[in-house]
Design brief:
The protein is mainly beta. Helices cover about 5% and strands about 35% of the residues. The protein is built from 2 helices and 13 strands.
Length: about 200
């Protein structure tokens, strides 16, 4: 299941979710499909599947805040690699007096994560807010979903509005390039278990 939810707070609340699922039959041992049950595929053992994921599929907390001269403040709160997607927790405050858009030119694929190998994982914006628009004085909080799992990497960069200005205080489409401290998150000690 692919899920993206965004919450726009203050006077207005909105949640947008995108879910995808498929299959309408179950494959039998002889290779035929029968019934209306979901298609069941053979997969790797759970331990092998999670070991291929960055940080074993665990959600890692982030505490990154990047202000833009136009009044936008972007905070990254978490990152997680899943089997078919990478999810980044975000909070965006629009301190401008106009709407801003963090994914203005989605057709150009200018929202993505790039890792040290050069591999890119592209943003999958919600269908109800493809431009990731935030109204003046509003806060958007939720998760951004990127198509593909995060590979084992030492470093990465989250890019939004790739070719837009990171310095223009009058822009409605602020550009962001945020370093992701992937290696330090992998080497960080695991939190102690509650007793």
């Amino acid at each position: 299941m692919l899920k993206l939810s965004l919450h726009i707070g203050l006077p207005l609340s909105m949640v947008v979710a995108l879910a995808a699922c498929g299959g309408d039959g179950a494959e039998t041992k002889d290779g035929t499909v029968s019934g209306n049950a979901p298609v069941v595929e053979e997969s790797m053992p759970a331990a092998a599947a999670t070991s291929a994921l960055w940080l074993g599929g665990e959600k890692a907390a982030l505490d990154i805040q990047v202000p833009h001269p136009n009044g936008t403040v972007l905070q990254l709160t978490s990152i997680q690699s899943r089997e078919a997607e990478t999810v980044v927790g975000i909070r965006v405050m629009n301190g401008d007096d106009r709407e801003i858009q963090l994914n203005r030119f989605n057709s150009n694929r200018n929202g993505y994560i790039v890792v040290d190998s050069g591999e890119r994982i592209y943003l999958s914006p919600p269908p109800g807010n493809r431009d990731l628009a935030i109204q003046p004085g509003q806060t958007m909080e939720g998760e951004l979903v990127f198509l593909g799992r995060l590979p084992q990497a030492q470093s990465g960069i989250l890019i939004l509005n790739e070719n837009n200005s990171r310095e223009n205080e009058h822009t409605r489409t602020p550009g962001f390039r945020i370093d992701l401290p992937l290696s330090s998150l992998v080497s960080a000690p695991a939190p102690a278990a509650a007793q």
